[in-house]
Amino acid sequence: MTIHIGAAPGQIAETVLMPGDPYRARWAAQTFLDDAILVNEVRGMLGYTGTWKGNRVTIQGSGMGMPSLSIYANELIRDFGAQTLIRIGSCGGMQAEVNLRDVVLALTASSLSTPSSGIFRDLNFAPAANYNLLRAAAIAATDRGVKTHVGGIYSTDVFYDERPDLTEQMTRHGILAVEMETAELYTLAARHRRRALAVLTVSDHLQTGEELPSEERERSFGDMVEIALEAAFA
Ligand SMILES: O=P(O)(O)O[C@H]1O[C@H](CO)[C@@H](O)[C@H]1O
Ligand SMILES: O=c1cc[nH]c(=O)[nH]1
């Protein structure tokens, strides 16, 4: 048990999927895991542990933004021994070819700052995915026939952005999508020698203003969860 995760020792699996939304953690556990049990509800940040094809998996909400994810990822790694951490999140498309429902596999995550920025100071550390997870996820997505993009994403601190110039620069430099957690997840994984990946679903588009209707989200998010599970145990 830690300050933010009430699970007993041994209740967290070595493989952890991390959605921002705790209700997505519950839905994914109930939909994809066998024998899922609730292992955390501190602050309503739900976590479940069960099995997928016989493999133990925990699905733990991270909350929104890098400071929140940083708390959960740190405790999962340092106190519960998590080895593989895969974010399953929504993102906003930033390129014309990145459409609603597409999956984005984050090769790298650029950011203006992360909770780890104080460590790097003026060094531009490049947070990057684990290659084996990324490759396995790309194969799983192709096998499922899901339109998938692999490339750089942008992890921002603010959803309501007052710096449109930053979005413009990111788009200009080929960044595929924006979300709010991956840069810190990849940085923590590098620091602690763990495997990390972000598998994202495009839920809206910054240039076109399109949004995925809520009733269609579940099917699209389902592809993302299964790609993450297949990559974790490839
Ligand atoms: O759908 P999740 O995983 O929460 O991810 C995205 O959605 C939230 C913003 O609405 C941020 O957490 C962002 O990263
Ligand atoms: O952080 C996010 C997540 C989804 N869509 C966005 O535009 N931003």
TrEMBL record:
Alphabetical list of Pfam families matching this protein: PNP_UDP_1
GO MF annotations in UniProt: purine-nucleoside phosphorylase activity; uridine phosphorylase activity
GO BP, one annotated term: purine nucleoside catabolic process
This protein's record includes keyword Glycosyltransferase: yes
Keyword annotations: Glycosyltransferase, Transferase
Self-association and partners: Homohexamer; trimer of homodimers.
The protein, known as: Purine nucleoside phosphorylase DeoD-type
Organism the protein comes from: Roseisalinus antarcticus
